[in-house]
Specification:
The chain is an all-beta fold. The chain contains no helices and eleven strands.
Length: about 120
């Protein structure tokens, strides 16, 4: 019922910035909380940041002060502004949206690669 598409990934130097976008389509009214996850080779997928429709957000300790999550409900779009990037931020970043009508059901995007060079 919902499709998610990430964009904005790329190759940047350490200390640089990127802005990721996630556009939701389909029955977007069913979306509740949205979030960004990332996964690097050999590592577990981890939550980067999450945001409710109200705009209240939570961040992983590793990105606090550097990343900013936001969403525009009218545009069905979520963003992740990433500043002061380090090579440890290199990963595939995924968009996630929770279904507010089906318990524990979530939709995932295909991911966008972020590579930070030293």
């Amino acid at each position: 019922q919902v499709q998610l598409a990430e964009s904005g990934g790329g190759l940047v130097q350490a200390g640089g910035s990127l802005r990721l976008s996630c556009v939701a389509s389909g029955d977007t009214f069913i979306i509740n909380v949205m979030g960004w996850y990332r996964q690097a080779p050999g590592k577990q997928r981890e939550l980067v940041a999450a945001i409710a429709r109200s705009g209240v957000a939570d961040y992983a300790d590793s990105v606090k002060g550097r990343f900013t999550i936001s969403r525009d409900n009218a545009k069905n779009t979520m963003y992740l502004q990433m500043d002061s990037l380090t090579p440890e931020d290199t990963a595939v970043y995924y968009c996630k949206a929770e279904d507010r009508f089906v318990t524990k059901y979530a939709y995932w995007g295909q991911g966008t690669q972020v590579t930070v060079s030293s």
